[in-house]
Design goal:
By secondary structure, the chain is mostly beta strands. It is about 0% helix and about 55% strand.
């Protein structure tokens, strides 16, 4: 967690729960339950209080960590949700999945703002630049799409990997994209 006091985990590919652990003592302090399918990924908002988790039931769950309360369930994907990210200003949640789409949500109202297409297979990974301007999505189609987060407008398509994109990240200066692929390579790309 951002406060450095909690470790958050899900135990296996088939787990429907998220565990909260005290970093200092190693003791289990809480369990988040409510998913109907296996948890695929989760991310913590910059406030350290909001946790978003995605899973195989096509939904995203929003949790309040201090109370372990399920705050909302977001449903718009038609297949498994595989990737999520929260913007640095905690205003926007982004999700991607097997339905080949990226969804952009208002994190506070839980309203779907836009649906982005363009990947020809599942969207496996997402990253929002630290300055909050850019969204990168990587897919099973071996491509990486770079868009403006605020509008969804496509800026660039990065191609060069020969396998599924498993992870993307953007450097702290928001100038370089890093991608990892099933082709066993890590690549660095200039955003400009």
């Amino acid at each position: 967690s951002p406060n450095g006091k909690t470790i958050i985990s899900h135990s296996s590919t088939y787990s429907q729960t998220i565990k909260l652990w005290d970093l200092e003592t190693g003791e289990l302090t809480g369990t988040l339950t409510g998913h109907a399918g296996s948890v695929k990924a989760f991310c913590i908002g910059p406030d350290g209080e909001t946790l978003a988790s995605d899973n195989a039931d096509n939904t995203i769950k929003l949790w309040r960590l201090s109370t372990e309360e399920l705050v909302s369930t977001l449903a718009s994907h038609t297949e498994d949700v595989l990737a999520i990210a929260i913007s640095p200003d905690a205003q926007t949640l982004v999700s991607g999945g097997k339905d080949e789409t990226v969804k952009i949500w208002n994190l506070h109202t839980c309203q779907l703002l836009r649906t982005l297409s363009g990947h020809s297979y599942s969207v496996n990974t997402l990253a929002i630049s630290p300055d909050g301007k850019f969204l990168a999505s990587g897919g099973y189609d071996s491509s990486i799409k770079l868009r403006y987060l605020s509008t969804g407008k496509l800026l660039k398509i990065f191609s060069g990997h020969s396998g599924s994109i498993n992870t993307v990240a953007i450097t702290p200066d928001s100038k370089t994209l890093i991608s990892g692929s099933e082709d066993k390579t890590i690549r660095l790309w200039s955003l400009f």
